[in-house]
């Protein structure tokens, strides 16, 4: 019971109070997540079966971390806990039960790109004005409705739930919504919101299923409860209705997802639903210095809508909050980069101790440039992730279509990629036929020759045959073997391979990287299901905050404030503290919006443990124009006793750094070598490459990297990697089943 010693009195009380409904609404850094973690550990110690505990977190990463901590207390049993985001836990349940609500168990999960493309297509098919019916706007409306559990029928019936401008400006949103749902259903696909919407449908229409899960989840816990929407609220309420062992933790002052339907009334509803509720208050912040906590308090007290809390810290007083003023966004980047470098050197820190937070992803560019110039390594969380790249989406579409032939978005993406003579008109024809006859596009595709599609018919037929053969492979092999097979036989690899530009090579390497990721998935002892559908589900459910690439070394973390929720860093920089940027221009028209923006600032401040720095620029490029900018009102809301202004003209320590004659270079990792061998022309034909006897020391040739020597072979399971030092290019790790290599005598 050592873990109980790691808690203060109120935290301990909340941990020990395992039975019945319980709510902890408490300030930032007060140990809410810690309480949840040890509460679960405590339940397990008391003998509760891990299979009976459900814990819902904000990101999959948070779940993983929590599981790790619990494992330290109770051992490997922690693996059996149900943990993850709402979307990942409930998609797992939907997989098992999908057929009950008319979906295939291998349903596809549409990401927001798929959803928007589908909407764009529907708008086109309906001959509507695409400037009025922008995919973003339409998807926003559809998503808003689903999060409130409003069905298409209800939406069409009840004009009062439509937004103000709809009747006049966009009267067809309801119709688009209807077609969109029909098309998703026909494609055997659910979008993100459907995962929650359909879980509610499942539990509403199938009492036996609901009972089953009520009996499984004897204890339900939700972190970041302030950011749940109505649909999530209802799911947890239904699940907990039998045993009423539900514990939610959150902080109303950190509610930042109203735009996605998060609803603060869920906290009030909770009190109404469970009159026997035990409420715990935590007020001591363990994360931050006193100055940081006080600065945060002075900001949030400007909000009218909030539950009263007195958050205090008994940590050291700490540094004042630095405020950096720069003359431009580029200078801001430079000053921040220098401040990071300076602080790291003076305090003997690691780059891992630093985070740069911004309001929108677009702000990362100037920061990245500055960091790169200083050779400070950084990693961006979220943003355009690996899985959104074109070539990756192409291969994933092949994988998806092999698993679910009805997947319309996947099919449209690759039916003529690589080119196989199925032109746009043919594709249009297929879609019209599918819509007119109420079939899925695949059903039309697989009967193309009967439908008299002419010459294209043959190509379509071949395509269908290919996909069917992929399905067979996917059924028999693990995710890695299946994906490698599909990558090769789809023609995609050859197509990328034929592109000899630097970008082409990068795309080719990305495909390799995806296969590496699948290999890792298959080799992960924690994954029970190694099949292709399991892998696809895994990646479909990554949240923005999950897309951090795990790389060796020390990196400064960069991300939006939204993604930083729940995290903590020793040193935090909040950049772009300017009017119209933060608070965002779009959030200035109502008090509610402005208060949400202020809560976002509160979240940002409270991520810092020891030191907080705010920065702003007096001019900035936005949409290609240089604009003058003004310091954010939020800076002025902080009690000036806690601030230390560092103006551009009295830079002091900065000046010294800026003038330093690059001693910095000694810390620099050498610039990346080019990835294409310089002045190299292939000496041979690479098609029949036999690498079965490849060994360290052998000399090889690669059509892009040129000549090299094998330094190491690495076999794991049935996959072998060769580590090769290429002349003029450097070391590369290649998967043998995939690499085109010619072996020369050593
Ligand atoms: N009783 C305690 N003794 C020492 N450290 C603690 C204690 N409680 C919490 N902490 C530490 O304080 C930090 C903040 O805790 P935690 O992340 O659980 O807070 P939180 O309330 O979930 O914060 P947020 O509102 O940002 O989600 C963590 O580093 C945690 O380990
Ligand atoms: Mg937390």
TrEMBL record:
Keywords: ATP-binding, DNA-binding, Helicase, Hydrolase, Isomerase, Nucleotide-binding. It catalyses: ATP + H2O = ADP + phosphate + H(+); Couples ATP hydrolysis with the unwinding of duplex DNA by translocating in the 3'-5' direction. InterPro entries: DExx_box_DNA_helicase_dom_sf (IPR013986), DNA_helicase_UvrD-like_C (IPR014017), DNA_helicase_UvrD/REP (IPR000212), P-loop_NTPase (IPR027417), UvrD-like_ATP-bd (IPR014016). Residues 290-566 form the UvrD-like helicase C-terminal domain. The keyword Hydrolase applies. PROSITE patterns: UVRD_HELICASE_ATP_BIND (PS51198), UVRD_HELICASE_CTER (PS51217). It holds the Pfam family PcrA_UvrD_tudor. CDD domains: DEXQc_UvrD, SF1_C_UvrD. ATP binds at residues 26-33. Residues 5-289 form the UvrD-like helicase ATP-binding domain. One of its GO terms (molecular function) is hydrolase activity. One of its GO terms (cellular component) is cytosol. GO terms for biological process: recombinational repair. It comes from the Bacteria. Its EC number is 5.6.2.4. Belongs to the helicase family. UvrD subfamily. This is DNA 3'-5' helicase.
